[in-house]
Amino acid sequence: MVRTDVEQDGCERRMREAAAREGLGAHRGGHASSAPARDRGALRAGILAAVLTVAVAAALATDHGALAIVPGLSLALCGVALLGHLVFGGRTGDARLEQYEGGLVLHHKGRIRVVRYADTEVLDNTVRRSRYGRTLSVTYSFGLTDTEGRDLVVGSVFTGGETWGPLLRLDSARAQLPGALARLGAGERLDFGLMWLTAVELGSGRACAPWHRIQEVVVQEGTITIRAEGRRGPLLAVPTRLTPDVPLFLALTETFRAQSARPAPR
């Protein structure tokens, strides 16, 4: 679906109005649908499918029909990709993402939806592909909750993931941190999937350690690894996909580790 300039302007105006109503603060940037790029990919797949079809037909027309297996398998994969594009590709052409300090406004499938960072749970499903320690690509994807309490996914439907993905992590943690610190200061325990933390210690199940013994908190290859003084192996190693609000969790661990490293006042 291709929108006219008038429809585009009207959509962006309504998105700005929604952001103002929800008090999302300063505008971070806007990102269009990735549908045009996927259309180009589908065109290339179509051309490749045509070439493979000729190769399969030529192999079958000779006494070497077994040779048709290799291009035949590739042709089948192209067919699946093209079918997926035909079924789903046309549904995202009107997608747009506007990013603000306090949240997001999305236009998708004719609807405008708003996410406030202070009120949403952030499930980070980002996939990082690497080889020999070198990052090849990063596909950003986040499960969020809009202001109506409905779940949604912000991901590859939008261009510019390398921009809005890190900003979403930064701004969501910044928005949620004051409330989380207040709750911890009041003696509460916060749960992050399999892990939990208080103002005194960090743990999972019965395994825990006070903040002054936490030596390292790292995220690598989709796993949060926490090492503590006096232990040979990790204290915890938990997949990020099982951990809600990873950005907030990391901000809290950084805050409490920094506080525990300060010398006690005399």
UniProtKB/TrEMBL annotation:
Keyword Transmembrane helix: yes
Keyword Transmembrane helix: yes
Recorded superkingdom: Bacteria
UniProt cross-references to InterPro entries, sorted A to Z: DUF6585
Parts of the chain that traverse the membrane: 41-61, 67-88
This protein's UniProt keywords: Membrane, Transmembrane, Transmembrane helix
UniProt name for this protein: Integral membrane protein
Organism taxonomic ancestry: Bacteria, Bacillati, Actinomycetota, Actinomycetes, Kitasatosporales
